[in-house]
Write a structure and sequence with these properties.
The structure is a single chain. The protein has 16 helices and eleven strands. The relative contact order is 0.10. The strands form two sheets. Strands 7-6-5-8-9-10-11 form a seven-stranded mixed sheet, sandwiched between helices. It has about 375 residues and is an alpha/beta fold. Helix 3 packs across helix 5 and helix 7 packs across helix 14.
Length: about 375
């Protein structure tokens, strides 16, 4: 039972250090039955080919590769090259290239689409992500494209069965902390990453720590108080914030460039003079209206607005789609990479509506949409 609990709660791979054979290293840690995944030679060959594109149309590279292999190994067994990482939740030991070579390998197909300078700056950034529903897609897509060696994740919730329509995980993760689930996937992509998790979620007492050292903040929380509070703290620090809200099959994206202008109004002035402190005194029945303004209800699709009206009647909560969450990950990753690399992307709100691109709304649908907004008290 103790071992199962350890594997359930673990989220960081263990670097196997010291000398001796792999078997001896495993024995020292008392890992028990462990699967060994050793594709080190194949990784070396792929790295070699990516570094020598002249062999793309010349398959006769074996002699050159053998020469490179001798230099790389120094005549020693490949077992003692690179790094061995133990993944407790997988009961698996994996052999990986040295850090720099591994990063070059996994971003090799990014080249030209992302320049070497851009890739380096993106990788050496520190990004904080709040909210691991939509935020999980942002985190994993950032890491997949070679960004943010240092990443902070915060969410107080665990994965539930109804999360599986929009979070990239399986039924085996139900009941697991969302931050742990995402951190594991990050480390499975990049074992050299430095991930800091806040499974208690963003709180007054940890907010300064979370924001410390960030180059960019991705905000995807549901709590309206902390949505405003974290902006009130990030703004004077000059931390840019990006956010995306799913809108049916599309998304609504917000960019707040406090790094360029610390005098910008929070959330583009959408909430007026309301502060986080004001929200402590807002009646519970009025909070949905506040959240609707923050999320961009005036841009929402007809079906999205109709669904909000049905919460607590025919549906338990507002619906969210996996393809929209995935789109959030893609768009916010692009914005993160460009902002970190100095692009002057302006502050503002942008609507990406998939339905309206392929199925433009009729006049009757537009009229109905305005009626729903009126019923919600949104002009």
């Amino acid at each position: 039972m103790a071992k199962d609990t350890l594997n359930r709660d673990s989220w960081q791979p263990v670097l196997l250090k010291g000398t001796g054979t792999l078997k001896q290293k495993i024995s020292k840690l008392r890992l028990g039955r462990t699967q060994v995944n050793d594709q080190y030679l194949a990784q070396l060959e792929e790295w070699f080919l990516l570094s020598n594109p002249r062999f793309r149309f010349n398959p006769d590279y074996q002699a050159d590769f053998a020469k490179f292999l001798r230099k790389h190994s120094g005549g020693k067994n490949l077992d003692n090259q690179g790094s061995w990482f133990y993944y407790p939740w997988l009961s698996q030991v994996v052999h990986v290239l040295p850090d720099k070579m591994y990063q070059d390998l996994r971003t090799g197909r990014n080249r030209y689409l992302i320049t070497a300078k851009e890739q380096s700056k993106f990788y050496n950034s520190t990004i904080g992500i709040l909210g691991m529903s939509v935020g999980s897609h942002v985190a994993l897509t950032i890491v997949m494209t070679g960004g943010a060696a240092r990443i902070k994740l915060a969410d107080p919730d665990i994965i539930s069965g109804s999360n599986l329509n929009r979070i990239r995980t399986g039924v085996n993760s139900v009941g697991l902390s969302k931050t742990i689930a995402v951190a594991r996937q990050i480390y499975e992509i990049n074992p050299y990453a430095v991930v800091e998790i806040f499974p208690e979620g963003l709180q007054e007492k940890n907010m300064s720590n979370f924001l410390s050292g960030l180059d960019l903040l991705v905000e995807e929380m549901d709590n309206p108080y902390f949505k405003l509070k974290v902006r009130e703290m990030a703004k004077p620090k000059g931390i840019p914030i990006i956010m995306a809200a799913d809108n049916g099959d599309g998304i609504i994206v917000d960019v707040e460039r406090y790094d360029l202008n610390k005098k910008l109004p929070i959330l583009h002035g959408i909430t007026g003079k309301m502060t986080a402190e004001h929200l402590k005194h807002v009646e519970p029945e009025d909070l949905p209206g506040v959240m609707a303004r923050i999320a961009g209800a005036h841009l929402s699709t007809e079906r999205m607005l109709e669904s909000v009206m049905e919460v607590g009647k025919s549906i338990y909560s507002w619906p969210q789609l996996g393809n929209a969450a995935t789109m959030c990950g893609s768009v916010l990753t692009f914005l993160a990479r460009e902002i970190i690399n100095g692009a002057k992307i302006p502050s503002g709100r942008t609507n990406f509506t998939v339905e309206e691109a392929f199925l433009p709304p009729t006049k009757a649908q537009l009229k109905k949409r305005q009626q729903i907004l009126k019923m919600m008290g949104i002009r």
